[in-house]
Amino acid sequence: MLSALLMLAAPARADRNSEDRLRDQLRNTITQLRALTQENASLKVQLAQAQARPVEDPGKAQRLQHDIQQLRGEREALQAQLTQRGGELQQLQEAQQSAQQDYRRLQSTLLADHRRAEAADAALTECLADNRSLLGVVDELALRYQNRGFADVLLSREPLTGLRQAQLEQTAQRYRDQAATLRAGSKNP
Which key words are in the record (predicted)? Predict the structure, then answer.
C-alpha cells in the first residue's frame, strides 16, 4: 500500500516540476514580449521622427519598415506561444487536481481497510482466548472421565436414591453453562 501511495506521489511531483518549468518559460516569454514591445515602440518613435524629417537616406526608411514588420511577426509568434503555454499549464493543473483526488480517495480506502483489519484482529484475539478457555473445559472433562473409577460407575447407576446421578447432571450442566459462555458467537448476538 505504501508503494502505491509513493507511486501516486511521484506523478504529482513530476507535474509540479513541469508546472514550474512551464511557468519559467511563460515568464521568459512575457519578458521577451515586453522587450520586443518596447523595441517596437522605440522603432515607431524613430519612424515617426524619420518621417517628419526629410528623407536623407531612402534605404534607411525601408530598413526600418522591414525591422518593424519583423518585430510584428516576432510579437505574433510570441503571443501564439504564450497562448499555447497557457493551455499546457491549464492541462497540467487539471491533471494535478485529478491526481490529488485519486490520492485522497486511495488514502481514505486504505484507512477504512486498516480499521477493518484492526477490528478483525481484535475479534480473532477474542476468539482465540475463548477457544483456549473451551480447551481448558474439555481437558478438565477428559481428566474427570479418565479418573473415574468402578465405584463411580456403580454409584451413578444406583437406582434407589439417584443422588449420584443428580450430582453428575449438575456437573454436566455446569460444564454446558461454562461452554456456552465461552462459545465465540455467544458474546456478539
Answer: Coiled coil
